[in-house]
């Protein structure tokens, strides 16, 4: 018996090594039952261009949070710029489907008529209207 | 030298042609770029280099002229009070027209100056010609008050 073992020791050793390798391969590659959900994507110091009714609008922020395919949240200092207006504020929400953006924080808007300061805004691009809430001061270079 | 004087004079003329207007709203302001209007509500204050107006609501229309947008018509609603030099106009509704630089007030209208108080139902103030036309409630009498130029101006 010992003679047989001595004669085949290398074969047994190779067989064992191959078995361990096959076992490791199996555990490394078997499908996982965990589901990875990656709904929110954040980008810092972000700027991009989106197409809306007002034309091409450049958007940017300290941090962009993608809520879903159509909703973005511009966190921190943010801006929206196109050929009609420049909106500078912070924490601005954007809905690409409804062509809307809004913020409840202080905002400054510059257009070809003057400069406007308000405590928040709702921009409905499809209607060409921007609503400013609270105390609003608009200085025109009339 | 003449060119320099002409240049300085041109800058002076330009700066006066584009003097500043200010709109303050206590509640909200809507900028409608399609209708080309600004609608302000709640303790509204409109001022330019000529007068200051107060009301509860304001609709200002603008046009694009030479690459700039200018207020052409300013409508004021409810509790309208306009301060023009030493005069105070009050009424229910007012409309300021930039082209002819006039203010028309309707409703319970009054003109108050340091020396007199006149009331009526319609007032037309021609700012450039320093003329005021006040119509009475029954439309039968017309009061025209020509104001002397202020000695300080």
Summarize the structure.
The complex is a heterodimer of chains A (142) and B (153). Chain A is of the alpha+beta class and 142 residues long. Helices cover 19% and strands 52% of the residues of chain A.
What is the CATH-assigned architecture of chain B? Answer: Sandwich
The quaternary structure here is heterodimer
So what's the overall shape of chain B?
Answer: globular
Any idea what the CATH superfamily of chain B is called? Lipopolysaccharide (LPS) transport protein A like domain
User: What CATH first level of chain B would be assigned?
Assistant: Mainly Beta
Q: Helical region count of chain B?
A: 1
Mean pLDDT of chain B: 83
The number of helices of chain A is 2
Largest interface: A-B, 24 and 27 residues
Q: Which fold name is given in CATH as the topology of chain A?
A: lipopolysaccharide transport protein A fold
Low-confidence runs of chain A: 33-38
Give start-end ranges of low-pLDDT stretches of chain B: 5-17
Classification by helices and strands of chain A: alpha+beta
What is the radius of gyration of chain A?
30 Å
Overall 3D geometry of chain A? rod-shaped
Report on this model:
The complex is a heterodimer of chains A (142) and B (153). By secondary structure, chain A is α+β, with helices and mostly antiparallel strands. Chain A has one domain: lipopolysaccharide transport protein A fold, CATH 2.60.450.10. Chain A contains 2 helices and 10 strands. Residues 33-38 of chain A have low confidence and may be disordered. With 153 residues, chain B is mostly beta strands. Chain B has one domain (19-146): lipopolysaccharide transport protein A fold. Chain B contains 1 helix and 10 strands, in the order αββββββββββ. In chain B, β7 (102-112) and β8 form a beta hairpin. The model of chain B is unreliable at 5-17 (pLDDT under 50). Chain A binds chain B through residues 84, 109, 111-114, 116, 118, 127-142, and chain B through 18-34, 38, 40, 48, 62, 64, 67-71.
